[in-house]
Each structure stands twice: as C-alpha cells, then as structure tokens.
Design a protein that fits this description.
heterotrimer; A mainly alpha (about 200); B mainly alpha (about 180); C alpha+beta (about 350); A: about 80% helix; C: about 350 residues; alpha+beta; 7-stranded mixed β-sheet
Amino acid sequence: MRWRWLVLALLLSLLPSGALAHVPEGGASSVMAGLLHPVTGIDHVVAMVAVGLWGAVLGAPAIWLLPVAFPMVMAFGGVLGLLDLPLPGVETGIALSALVLGVLVMLQQRLPLTVAAVLVGLFALLHGYAHGMELPDGADALLFSLAFVGATGLLHLVGIGLGEARRLAWGHRLLQVVGAVIAVVGVWSLVQLGGA
Amino acid sequence: MPLLFAHLMQTGFGGFYDGIAHLFLTPSDLLLVLGLALLAGQQGPQGGRLLLTLLPLSWGIGLAVGQRWGLDLTLALLTTVLFTLVGVLVALSLRLSAQVLAFTVAGSGLLFGLINGFTMPPAPSGLPLDVLGVVSAVAVLSVLISAQVAATRSTGFCIAVRVAGSWIAAAGLLSLGLLFKA
Amino acid sequence: MSRFKLRSWLAIVVFALTLVLPRTLSAHELLPGYLDLHETAAGQYSVLWKVPLQQGKRLPITPRFPEDCQLQGDLDSKLESSAWIYHGSLSCTSSLKGKPIVIDGLAAVGTDVLVRFQPADAVRPETHLLKPVKQTTILGTDVDSEPSGLVAYLRLGIEHILLGVDHLLLLLGLVMIVRDGWMLLKTVTAFTLANSITLSVSAIGIVQVPTAPLNAAIALSILFIGTEVVRFMRGQTSFTLRHPWVLACGFGLLHGFGYARGLAELGLPHHELLLALLLFNVGIEIGQDLFVVLVLALERAFRQLQIRWPLWVRRMPAWTIGCAGAYWTIETTLSLIKGGV
C-alpha cells in the first residue's frame, strides 16, 4: 500500500511540470532555469540533501514536518532576498549550515523537535535569501518558482531516501560517510569564503 | 504573469478542447484548482461535494461575466496571493467550517473565471464550447483529486498532500517576490 | 402526484434536448481536403486537389500557389460520391521548394487539408497538415521539425475519436453495462480488436461499405446500446448484458468502418498507407482508452465522495445515449431513403 501514495504524490508533483513542458516561448527556459538554479551551488545541494537526511534521522514527526515547512520558509527567505532587505552573514551561514547538518547526520544526533525546527528554519531562510538575491530577471515568475521549489523538494526526497537506508544493515555506515562528506563540503565552503 | 498564457491555446481539436488546454497550460489556474481540490479533500467527502458543486458553477459565472466585460487585465498579484493562501491552508491541514470553505471556493472560482473570461473572446455563434471546456476541465480535475484525497486516510498520503500544499504556497510566495521586484 | 409532475416535466425537457442536442453535437465526419503536388519535370507539377463535400456542397476552400506559378489548362474536374476531384498541371519558373502554399477559406470551414509534395529528386513525398489555425505551410521544409508528416495521422486518429460524439456515446454505453474489471478488459479488448480489423480492411480497400447505410447502422447501434443501458439499470438482463464483449465485438466491427471513412477519403498512395493506417489506429485507441479511463475515474471519484445523485441524474447518461441514437437513426434512415450522401 505504501507505494501507492508515493506514486500518487510523485504524479501530483509532476503534474504542473508535466503540463509546463508544452508551454511555448520562454516558458520552457524559465522552467529549466528554475530547475537548475537550486543545483548550481554545491553547498546548496548538499545542505538540501542534508535536511532530508537529518529529517529521516530524527524520524516522525520531523521527517514530514521538515518537507512541509521548509519550502515555505525558504520561499519567505527568497522574498526577503528579492526585495534586497538586509540579512547579515548569509554566505557564512550557508557554509555553516552544511557543516552543522553534516556533523549532525554523521553523529545521528537527535535534537528536540523545536530546536531542530528553529535550526532548519534558520537555514531555510538563509538559503532562500541567497537564492533570492541571485534570481534572474525576465524569467516567467510562476514557472520559475514552481520549478525551483520542485527541484528543492526533490533534493529533500533524495535526502530522505538516503536516510531511510539506515534501516539496512550497512545503513549506519553509509549515513556516517554521507554526513562526513557533507561536513567536508561545508568546511571547504568556509575556507573558500575566508580566502575570498 | 505575462500575457503569454492568457490567450486561448489552439489545440486544433475545436473550442471544447481549447478550453481544456487553457486550464492545463495556465499554471496559476491549475495551481488554484489543485490547491482547492486538496483543501476540499482534506475536509472529507462533504468538502469534495461542496467543491464539485460550487467551483465549476462560480468559475462559469465568472467566465460569462468576464467575457462580457473583456478588460485587458490579468490581476497577477491577486491571483498569486489567492492560490498561495490556499496552499498555506493545505500545508497547515486546517479543518475549515463549511461556510469558510464555500466562501473560499466560490470567491476564488468567480475571480479566476472572471480573469479567464477577460482574455477569451466570446464565441462567434452557437454554443460557447471553450467556456464549456474550461468549466468541465475544472470540474473533472477537482472531483478526481478531492475524491482521492478524501478517500485516502493513510498518514503517508496526508503528508504528501500537505507537502504539495506547501510547494504551491512556496511557489506562490517566490513568484510574488519576483512580481514585486519586476 | 408530484412524482407524476416531475416525470412529465422531464419528458418535456428530454424531448427538447432530443431536438436540440444532436444538432449541435452532430456526429463528426472527418473530411479533410487533399492537395497533391508531384514534380514531373523541373518546375512542372501535376496537381491533384480533392475538396470534400459537406451536405452535397463543395467546401469553399482553394489552394493559392506562389506568384510565379501558373495553372495550365482547365482543371479537369469531376464529382465523386464524397468529394470534388480536380486534376491539373502547374508550371513554375523555379522549384516550389521553400515557397509557401496557402489554402484560402480554411479558417471558415473548420476542416483540415493534407498537402503532399514530392519534388523530382525526392524518394518519398513530404506531408503537411494544414488546419483552420494554420492555413499556410512552406514546401520543402524539414518535415521532421514540425509535427506534421506521418505524425499527422496519429493526430487525426485522436481528433477523430475525440470529436466523434457518436463513437464516444457508444463507448460510454459499453462501459456502463460492464460490471467488473475482468469483463471490462474483455469488452475493451474486443472493441479494439474488432474496430482495428474493419478499419484496416476497409482503409486498404478490401471491403467497400456505402456511406449512407453505414451511417444508419452506426446510429442504430447507439440507439441499441441506449436501450441496453436502461435495461441494465432496471436490473433486467439479456444475452448482451451477460456478454457485453460480444456486443463490443459486433459494434467494434461496425464503428471500425466508420473510422476508416476518415482515412479512405484522403486518397493515400500505397507505400505510406500501412504506416499511416497504423498510426491512425493507434491514435483512435489512445483517444478511446483516455475516454474509458476518464469515465471510470469519474465513477470512482463520485463513489469516494459518497455522492447520491437524484434519480433523473442517474438516468441522464442512458437517456442521452438513447435520444441521440434515436435522433441519428431517424436522420440517417431518412437520408438513406432519399438516397442522399
């Protein structure tokens, strides 16, 4: 029975993008831009996957609260970024988020739900803000946003999927390795920031 | 929302199918119907029944009035705010009273129908097949989705519905930001 | 008393619908025009132009050739049962490649025109599909880059079924008298196989069916399925209700001839016919299956929402099928008696 709702959810999520595939003139490029935007920065990608991963580690209810709340908080951050409202320490925060989440996943650390929610919410805000600053002009706003949110959500799903592997025998080891890799990317981003 | 999608899409299969295609190629309309269907489904079968009665009706009335007025407006901000709110309601998985749901459904149906109507030229003669197409597509889509949501009670599916709602809301929020910036 | 009142009102409404509905939703007849340009020498083309007839009258569409071309001699024309056919020759100062062909008047008539163009050096002709919204095409353009060519037949197939209200009503009736999934599978398969067979043999020209009796028979089949649905809803039974696949098979054979009419009038050469036929058939099946899935999904959704339709709504589909079938039967039989097309 489990696979049935999963398939349906996937279909539902594909519904708009499927329809958009036929949108003429400029629509397609907006969709592509939106899909690609979240995967352009390695630090963004690993942080998104890490959110899903950590959600899986935390288990219910975090595993579903995060995918519900994250997109909205991120979009809110995006609006802040779009409107050029000041938010300090964004780049450092993003690099830190990968490091922190990576370590948390590696140690399979379970924090209380409120602490976890505040932490992830903060990261969501920072990531959204950073994206918002870089968003291109001239794209079709809604198509771009849809594709953007969809791509982010899929990254979460990848993380959750990876996280579910901990039920397997070698899953713990896998989780530790992935967490370590994410943390290393975070450190690397920090170093890059310091060098620049 | 640029006027790119505003005008009636030509499928070559005649007015009825042009109307159907219009709904499926207009992202904001599609997201609103999707959001409302999820929301109504969350309220159980009676929510779905209410949606099936009110949404096509109000959409059709809006269309008829809009065609008469024929303004060159898309009211992108207003429509985006509306479906964003619906998305938030779905994400929060709120129990709404029947009156609130009815008001939301009828209001947004009227507004979206009106805007559809602005951009659709009145049919030259005979039956307004394109209007019929839009309204049938709205009815079919909303009844199919809301029924599925209302009938499935597994936690996983409920979460998937809430995630879908949050995606709708997030996309709406982001495009609001983009609209403000532009 | 109130029940009686309701009934008489309904009778009036249904009667009115019988008069109005089938006229607006008249059974769709796929009658595309056909223009064939075959290069015989440099700049010389033989022209074949078929104009479909609608209620015995020629559709007001004419091809417009580039400025430097002249139609030579009078167009040798003759009237066939369903189309005017013109033969002629066209002489141009240069090749038609890269030049536009416009079909004048296409927007007003709402039909399609197939344009086939074969330069002298080409192995196979290119096919363009012109529609009311696209009245012009550039000859010699890469056909693969636009959804014309053979894919046009897939489109035509889907279009033929989606606009063929008569075929859709028959399908609706078939779905309504089927009780379970296994029976549905058998019924749909029987219908598909049967109409594929007759579509093929008829389109290739092995079997010729005169149009007027065929129309009458198709109309009668819809009337018949309407009565069967009513019988099914009353809880009665019959041989065809116990074995809907037999009915599906028989009516599939019949409607296959109807589908073939859409193809046969294009006048296709034989080397492309089989592939075109296959694509057309696939298009038809896609359209049919979409419709069946949609009907079933809606039925399921109504059940999930626990909707209790009032009696007259539940009876509506059967009555629509029956009334439309009755109307078409009378109409087609009359034209059969009068000897019309």
